[in-house]
């Protein structure tokens, strides 16, 4: 029998200790540096996430090489994760390139189709000891309407999905959404606790941007072991750059990007501290 994926071991350890791992998306060398600087400062492990759009921009091999080299340079234990992939060819490519985990997002399909697609990826990924994340329930993506109490994950669905797919991580819908919130979300923490009692796998919270520290803490207490964090990273980085360029004639990119790296690193460090229970 193959040993458990090291990322899953870490997530289980964090969950047992009442903590979570931050899963932060990077988009270029600068946001990658900011995330790893923060992780080094906080002496924390980190999950480095790439979306399909980022891989279309950078390329799978370049993104992988960047993440591995930068983590080594900063002396940080970092896990590389493919986020929200629907294209099985891309998932296979990331598996072959050596990602630690991949997400198959078939959540917009019917339950049985979601199960089937997840099972297919699990079979391939587990042969290489790579972890698989899937999503059950309705977590609105950018531009989609909020859940309004519908489409939330039930404990029965979560338990059945795990039993039928053997995925390693499960993203659940408890009222969060991707992107910034147009109105304050009503998170169902009772639902989270009920799911946590019947699911023996690390649970994932998508839509971490825009939630308060207390909401993060309550989610972690309820059983969340991985919190996805992306939108605020992009927003903080680009808005800092815009401000720094206002009335500035500097053209040296190495200087222009520095303020964005610094503010983004402070943001990520703050989120890591929350995940660590501080």
Index terms:
eight-stranded parallel barrel, alpha/beta, 12 helices, 15% strand, 278 residues, single chain, TIM Barrel, 8 strands
Describe, in plain words, how this protein is organized in 3D.
The chain has a single domain, classed as TIM Barrel, CATH 3.20.20. With 278 residues, the chain is α/β, with parallel strands linked by helices. An eight-stranded parallel barrel has the order 1-2-3-4-5-6-7-8, surrounded by ten helices. The chain has twelve helices and eight strands. Helix 2 links the parallel strand 1 and strand 2. Helix 2 runs parallel beside helix 4 (60-74) and helix 2 packs across helix 12 (258-275).
Reported by name, the CATH topology is TIM Barrel
Shape: globular
Strand content: 5-15%
Mean pLDDT: 93
So what's the CATH class? Alpha Beta
String of helices and strands: HEHEHHEHEHEHEHEHEHHH
* CATH level-4 homologous superfamily: Aldolase class I
Overall SS class: alpha/beta
What is the rounded distance between the termini? 37 Å
Gyration radius (Cα, Å) is 18 Å
Show unreliable segments: 145-149
Helix count from the secondary structure assignment:
12
CATH architecture: Alpha-Beta Barrel
Number of domains: 1
Main sheet: strand order: 1-2-3-4-5-6-7-8
């Amino acid at each position: 029998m193959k040993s458990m994926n090291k990322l899953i071991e870490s997530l289980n350890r964090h969950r047992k200790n009442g903590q979570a791992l931050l899963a932060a998306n990077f988009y270029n060398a600068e946001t990658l540096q900011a995330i790893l600087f923060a992780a080094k400062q906080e002496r924390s492990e980190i999950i480095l996430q790439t979306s399909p759009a980022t891989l279309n921009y950078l390329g799978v091999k370049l993104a992988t090489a960047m993440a591995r080299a930068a983590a080594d340079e900063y002396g940080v234990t970092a896990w590389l994760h493919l986020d929200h992939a629907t294209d099985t060819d891309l998932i296979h490519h990331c598996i072959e390139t050596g990602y630690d985990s991949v997400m198959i997002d078939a959540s917009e399909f019917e339950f049985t189709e979601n199960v089937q697609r997840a099972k297919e990826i699990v079979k391939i990924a587990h042969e290489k000891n790579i972890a698989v994340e899937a999503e059950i329930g309705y977590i609105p993506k950018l531009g989609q309407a909020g859940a309004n109490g519908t489409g939330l994950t039930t404990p029965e669905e979560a338990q059945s999905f795990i039993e039928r797919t053997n995925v390693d991580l499960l993203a659940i819908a408890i009222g969060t959404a991707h992107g910034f919130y147009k109105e304050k979300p009503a998170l169902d923490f009772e639902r989270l606790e009920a799911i946590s009692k019947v699911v023996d796998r690390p649970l994932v919270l998508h839509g971490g941007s825009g939630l308060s520290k207390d909401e993060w803490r309550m989610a972690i207490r309820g059983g969340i072991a991985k919190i996805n964090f992306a939108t605020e990273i992009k927003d903080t980085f680009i808005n800092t750059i815009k401000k720094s360029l206002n009335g500035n004639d500097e053209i040296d990119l190495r200087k222009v990007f520095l303020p964005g790296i610094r503010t983004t690193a402070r943001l990520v460090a703050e989120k890591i501290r929350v995940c660590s229970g501080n």
